[in-house]
Design brief:
By secondary structure, the protein is α+β, with helices and mostly antiparallel strands. Strand 2 and strand 3 form a beta hairpin.
């Protein structure tokens, strides 16, 4: 085993320390012009510029879904909330699946997203109900593309800055909006170099920590070049089993311009103790 493979295996184990691990345990383991001319060689430009179009839109509502199959069991984690692409902050309510034993459904995890940080409430056993857990996303081997159980919407868009290939698939409809569908592969290392300051280190960590830095994607953009739906397929090494684990993360964006008021926790609202395993 090469040194890089060993490093990825060690980093992969770190991913399991996040929200995804909670679910595994329970389961048994102006761009409008460019958008209008969106075929052929313009496909790459539309995809790579999609993050900038979101900044221009400023805010939106968001729905997320993260699917993973392991040990013969499929786990789906869903989230819903709002995001401010200008300020790079967001709020999501993440719903964990009920465990197979039929126990009472878990409380939703409240997440606040910010450049370089993820704040979670109801994160784990032993954390007081009024306290937040803070995670430095730059230290995560997946750059918080997987650990939080939902991919940060702006990070999801910035992955596309590293698009190596992009093919125009055709016109589709997403929640009543006419969109153009593109399919391709992004390079996380390239995305990290082109990302905004808040996502550079996190995406660079993901490029090193995932089983592969090549990320297949499907993205659906509207006539203003804004992402309405994006789906990534990530692959990481789980330290508790052989081989890579595939994760499909989907983000839906809608109601652009919606009011967003995200207030990050004060220092005395952040839990500094140890989080118990669930």
């Amino acid at each position: 085993m090469t040194e890089r493979q060993q490093r990825r295996r060690r980093h992969g184990a770190g991913v399991a320390a996040g929200v995804l691990c909670v679910c595994l345990a329970g389961s048994g383991c102006a761009q409008s012009g460019a958008a209008a001319d969106s075929r052929g060689s313009d496909a790459l430009k539309v995809v790579r510029d999609a993050a900038d179009a979101l900044v221009g839109a400023r805010t939106s509502k968001a729905r997320t879904s993260m699917e993973m199959a392991t040990g013969g069991t499929r786990v789906t984690i869903r989230g819903e909330g709002v995001y401010d692409f200008h300020e790079r902050v967001g709020r999501l309510k993440v719903l964990l699946p009920q465990d197979p034993a039929g126990a009472t459904a878990r409380r939703p995890i409240m997440e606040l997203l910010a450049p370089g940080a993820l704040f979670m409430k109801n994160r784990g056993a032993g954390v007081p109900a009024d306290k937040w857990v803070r995670v430095d996303t730059r230290s995560l081997s997946d750059g918080n593309l997987v650990t939080g159980g939902a991919t940060d919407p702006f990070a999801a868009a910035e992955v596309l800055r590293g698009a190596r290939t992009a093919t125009y698939v055709g016109e589709k409809d997403v929640d009543g909006t006419a969109v153009r569908h593109y399919r391709g592969t992004a390079d996380l290392g390239v995305a990290a170099r082109k990302a905004s300051q808040g996502n550079k280190e996190a995406l660079a960590a993901a490029a090193k920590g995932f089983a592969t830095d090549q990320v297949p994607f499907d993205v659906y953009v509207d006539d203003a070049g804004r992402i309405r739906k994006v789906r990534h397929r990530f692959s990481f090494v789980n330290g508790q089993q052989e081989g890579a684990v595939a994760v499909a993360s989907t983000t839906l964006l809608y109601d652009f311009g919606a009011p967003v008021d995200v207030r990050l926790p004060r220092n005395d609202d952040i839990y500094a103790g140890k989080i118990a395993e669930e």
